[in-house]
Structure formats: C-alpha cells, structure tokens
Design a protein that fits this description.
It is built from 9 helices and 13 strands. The strands form 3 sheets. The chain has a 5-stranded mixed β-barrel. Strands 2-3 form a two-stranded antiparallel ribbon. It has a single domain, classed as Spore Coat Polysaccharide Biosynthesis Protein SpsA, Chain A (Alpha-Beta Complex). Helix 5 packs across helix 8 and helix 7 packs across helix 8. 33% of the residues lie in helices and 26% in strands. It is globular, with a radius of gyration of 18 Å. The protein is an alpha/beta fold. Strand 2 and strand 3 form a beta hairpin. The structure holds 1-O-phosphono-alpha-D-glucopyranose. 1-O-phosphono-alpha-D-glucopyranose binds next to strand 11 and helix 8.
Length: 274
C-alpha cells in the first residue's frame, strides 16, 4: 500500500521574484491557501498520510505552516476567527510530516534521491506543488493510486499540450494499452522545439516504485546539467514498465504567472469558503 507522498520543495521559484526572495514558492497562496496545502489535501484524499517534504535554505515557513502557532491560537481561541484554522488543524490531525534539506539544487532526480531517507524502500507518490490539480470527483493522485493497485509499476500523469509548449516539460511517447493509459517507450526531458516525440507532457504527479532510487544514482546529468527524473524513468521503462496516465481533471501551472492567475480565479469562484 502506498502511504507516503514526497514533495520536492527546495527550488528557488525565480519566476516569482521578488515575492519568492524570502518566501518559498510553495507558500504562495492561491486566494488564502498556500500551494503546498493543496498538494497535501490531494495526498490525504488519496489515502496517503506520510508527507515527506524536501526543503532547502530559507524554507522554514513550510515546516511552521504544518505546526502549531501557540500565540496565534491563543489570541483567536473562542472567537469566530478560529474557524479559519479548521482545515489546517484537520490536516495536522490526519497527516505526519517529515522534512529533509537539500543542500544543492541538482535537478528533480537529485531531489527525489534526497527524499529516499524519508521514504525508505516502498512505492510512493510525488507531488510538485506548483502544478495545482483539481477534479470534481476523484483527485488526480487518487486516480493514480487506483491504477497503481492494478498495475504495480511507476506511473506519470500526462496531459496534451500545444506543440509550441512541449519544450517546457518531460514528454512521453507510448502505446495506448487501455483508455487513457499508455505504456511508455520513450521519454525526453524538455525536448528542443520541433523534436518532441509527442505532445503528451508530464505534469507534477508521479507514483514511483523504490527501484527508482538506484536508477537515479546511475543516471548522469541530462538537460541543463541536472539529474533528471525523466531520464531515470526512461531507464525504468526500458527495464520493465512505466505507465503514463491521461488524468481526469484540470491542472494549473502555478509556476507561471498566467497559470497562477487562472488558478486564483478558479479557486475563488469554485472552492473558496469565506
Ligand atoms: C519538472 C519535470 C518535467 C515535468 C514538469 C511538470 O520540470 O522535470 O519533466 O514535465 O516538472 O511540471 P520543472 O517544471 O520543474 O522544470
């Protein structure tokens, strides 16, 4: 059973400078809830309770967010404002949080490898919190966990993107084995324009089997000199099987300003409770 979810959250968030100069990008709020909390909600909904966060320098507010704030709680205790803490208190009751620091940014593959210390030798989920995913019924991770229970191999979530955007993503090629499920036979991290194997882009949701850790250790730096999870997953696909799943729902790229604004409007109109 998958119990843990890894959140690589050590990146700099340069696209949102100066906001992210001293605030982690994962703490940027969509209306009144930080991005990371949306990710944790999605993981809890999928039945995962171990939240393993890979942080870095200057990211302590990520830890504080999921801990008690005695002074604040004391001040608002017994007032209507307490209601505003209801959701985060429920999260803190249900989930366990553990943190590890990544000293150097050497790519997503490297961040995942740092997380091994918290994950151990079991399959796990990965959420990149700047991809915010919503779905009226089951969340994307929940959909992926059901798929994992059927197939027992690594799974990446994909969506079709316009041809002129494939260079921003890991892109897969694969044979459809069932509705919305593909067996991956090629995978390229941020292909140069015009060279993508398809327009099926990986978005920030993964289920990984633990053999990925040893594969990452053997994976040389790839695109931009970084250790790429996409390269490690291609090795895993060649040795066994990796699936790509075209998920149900909508995803907002909150790492970009237009995506962040779209997500804000969507959440305000559909999910915000005053
Ligand atoms: C990472 C992955 C990429 C994936 C993307 C999804 O890239 O390396 O394969 O498509 O997340 O958001 P990043 O956006 O961190 O550069």
């Amino acid at each position: 059973m998958i119990k843990k979810c890894l959140f690589p959250a050590a990146g700099y968030g340069t696209r949102f400078l100066p906001a992210t100069k001293s605030m982690p990008k994962e703490m940027m709020p969509i209306v009144n809830k930080p991005l990371i909390e949306f990710g944790v909600d999605e993981a809890l909904e999928a039945g995962l309770t171990g939240m393993c966060i890979v942080t870095g320098r200057g990211k302590n507010s990520l830890m504080d967010h999921f801990d008690l704030n005695y002074e604040l709680e004391h001040e608002i205790s017994g007032t209507p404002k307490e209601e505003k803490l209801k959701d985060i208190r429920a999260i803190m009751d249900k989930a366990r949080f553990s943190f590890i620091r990544q000293r150097q940014m050497r790519g997503l593959g490297h961040a995942i490898l740092i997380g091994k210390e918290l994950i151990g030798d079991e399959p796990f989920a990965v959420v990149l919190a700047d991809d915010l995913c919503v779905n009226a019924e089951e969340g994307v991770l929940k959909q992926m966990i059901s798929l994992y229970n059927q197939f027992r191999c690594s799974i990446v979530a994909v969506e079709e993107v316009p041809d002129d955007e494939t260079h921003k993503y890991g892109v897969i090629k694969g044979e459809m084995i069932k509705d919305n499920i593909f067996r991956v036979d090629d995978m390229v991290e941020k292909p140069d324009p015009g060279t993508a194997p398809s327009n099926m882009a990986i978005i920030g949701r993964y289920i990984l089997t633990p053999d990925i850790f040893d594969i990452i250790k053997e994976t040389p730096p790839g695109k931009n000199g970084e250790i790429q999870l996409t390269d490690a997953l291609l090795t895993q696909a060649k040795r066994g099987c990796v699936l790509a799943y075209k998920f149900k729902g909508r995803r907002f790229d909150c790492g970009s300003v237009p995506g962040f604004i779209e997500a804000t409007n969507y959440v305000y109109e559909n999910m915000y409770k005053d």
